[in-house]
Amino acid sequence: MDMPLLCAVFAALSVTFYVLLDGFDLGVGALLLLQPHEKSRDHMVDSITPTWDGNETWLIMTGVTLLAAFPIAYGILMPALYIPIIVMLLSLGLRGVTFEFRSQMKSYRRRWDVIFAVGSIVAACMQGLILGALLQGVSVQGVTFSGSVLDCIRPFPALCALCVLAGYVVLGGCWLQFKATAQLHGFLGRTLRIALPLFMVSFFAVGGMSLFVQPGILAAWQNHPVLLGTLSCIVLLAAFILFGSIGKRPDVRPLIAGLVMIAAGIGGLAILVFPTIVPFRISIWDASSSRLSQIFLLTGAIVVTPVVLGYSFFAYWVFRGKTPEKGWDGYE
Amino acid sequence: MSLNPATLARVQFAFTVSFHIIFPTMSIGLAMFLAVIEGLWLKTRDGLYLEIYRFWQSIFAMGFGVGVVTGIVLSFEFGLGFAKFAQLAGPAIGPMIALEVLTSFFLEAGFLGIMLFGMNRVGPKLHFFATCMVALGTMLSASWILSANSWMQTPDGVAVHDGRLVVINWWHVVNNPSWLVRLPHMLSAAYLTSSFLVAGVGAWYLLQGKHLAFAKKSVALGTAFATVLIVGQVFIGDILYGTMLKHQPSKMQAAEGFWEKESASPAPYYWVIAPDQKEQRNRFALGIPYLGSIWLTHSLHGRVEGLKNTPRDAQPIMGMVFYGFRIMYGIAILMFAVATASLWLRWKRRLFTTKWFLRCLVTMTPSGILATLGGWYLAETGRQPWVIFGMLRTIDAVSPVPAQTLLATLIAFVCIYAFFMTAFLIFVARIIRRGPESASIHAEASGSLKNALRPQVLDRANANAAAGR
Lengths: 332, 469
Known about the structure:
The complex is a heterodimer.
Chain A: H1 3-31, H2 38-48, H3 52-69, H4 71-80, H5 82-104, H6 109-136, E1 140-141, E2 144-145, H7 155-179, H8 185-213, H9 215-223, H10 225-244, H11 253-273, E3 276-278, E4 282-283, H12 291-318
Antiparallel strand pairs in A: 1-2, 3-4
Helix pairs in contact in A: 1-3, 1-6, 1-7, 1-11, 1-12, 3-4, 3-12, 5-6, 6-7, 7-8, 7-11, 8-9, 10-11
Chain B: H1 5-44, H2 47-81, H3 83-117, H4 119-153, E1 158-161, E2 164-167, H5 170-174, H6 179-208, H7 212-247, H8 249-255, E3 269-276, E4 281-288, H9 291-297, H10 318-347, H11 355-363, H12 367-381, E5 386-388, E6 392-393, H13 403-434, H14 449-453
Antiparallel strand pairs in B: 1-2, 3-4, 5-6
Helix pairs in contact in B: 1-2, 1-4, 1-6, 1-12, 1-13, 2-3, 2-13, 3-4, 4-6, 6-7, 6-11, 6-12, 7-8, 7-10, 10-12
């Protein structure tokens, strides 16, 4: 059994779950900034309140999977991405705490909502910056990061930041069309019709620019032209379906299209960097932890992950259907 | 203390981890308390229990939220500040922390939503189950984290092959020599912390003459739990002392404030010292004669080991270890006194009317948190200069991140965490000012499991049906 490969698959799954699930949470947060009516903002936040915590857990899962299975990579990437990771963590922290406060302190709600939205936007941008820095490549000497902590603040990562933010806003809009009542649909239609084209343009701009900043990406395209081409087509096709179903029933269709679109994008990224874990520098086999460590991790993951997915689904199921406009407790 | 990366990385980690531990300590204890209260409510159907549940549930939720977001930071900080530590120790502690996330984090996150917002959707029985799952999640979480930290204190089950750590025996890594003693010690600390929180708030209301039924129940329950727990904690602490003396002698040598290889006989128990690490002596020491021998060696004339038994380059800084220990131990003695007093007053039927005792309880409200922090300072500063005891020095574990960056992020952490703490305290103060009565405006539990599982076809315009009733 090729343990490092299995661990890499699990890490990739964690990232995918994180982006798909917390993506719409962050997107909903960002959209608060554009929504002038307090009632509507409450409604938007209520739609993610019961499940956001579990969604964010996939981010921690990704981090600790790296630590457990690929400690060499973890020890190189964390210092390399020091600034965006810390800023992201602090933003997510602000956002998480604001979640609790806004429901308890009605008097300052406007202020909490601004913090909540800014936290979401900054966290999304930092994730884009991290993605860009990884694709651009980090400097490594042996098993130590040898670049500068400012390396990740360059034009290409900045473009990725815009792309990820737009993608999350699209997901957030799709989620709200699925979960929110009809009163929000006009606002969502207007937002999605701007955000989706913005995402598509930035997505393909990132794709084009990446060929110039990282020779490894060009090589990957030469190695898997059909696979990468197909995935790009899926992204395009899903985007068209999404655009066509904005504001139309069934309300779940844009969300499904949006999730497929983002998932295809992540699949493409995985193919670009495979089989490296410090992208284009160190392979998953060279960065591996001891064999027993990976077996321990995978055993836990194989036993527990289905259960986790099971009750995550159950939590979504309990809170299924449209979010009540009066909130979950049934009182204003 | 110069502003070099190693010092800054340590200060940053110490600050973020100290801030974090406050909240899990409360969450672990309060989750258990809430499960007990909801169980009592299901059994008796006494509305007072539901009132207590609602009151502490909101404080629990808030504290849990702060605990989660500060905990996420820690899972990345191993690599941010201590890349070399992460690269070496990852194979051993990584899987344990990963299992912690898998087993407990998801358990908490999955059921927390139901616990906080689902009373009207799933019915009381399933809701009680969700509360129990959250409590179990916090325990499992403590269990894995204590295992990982205990491995750093007393590493076992691994070998190092050409610079990389290889796990040889997982059972020895998880069940390392100190884990099974340190885990109950931490759990008891968390339960004690919440007992004093509950009793303190009850006492506050009694002194104010408000919410009397709620207050009496809180004081009665809080002091009862505390009495049982503090007795257990003293025994666990004593066993732990022996374990640590065996596996980490340098920590315990520093913790008692003695320098010479053997203390005088009988040994005093110091409460205040002014240690001089350079000269390897105390410039000043104040203690109670005989007590050191009695407590530490369980005899009248036993001698206690001093720090000179450990070579200088492997010594922790005595002052930090000693005072961490004294804060924890001093508070434990106070708790013991309060518990004894509560038994006496209970027997005299004056538990709810004795003013001085109620004031004591109010003062003791945050005592569990302070004691826990003291204990962790003893544990972590006593491990120095090692990050993995006897294997890797802290100084060799630091990330290649420049000092300015570390300083900037440290300032950011302090500012944002100060904001968290301020907001949390304001929030708790408001809850306490508002009092438990406000809980009664919540809808009565009216949902059922059947109702939660029934497919709902919702009319878009009329979605409020989902809110139950």
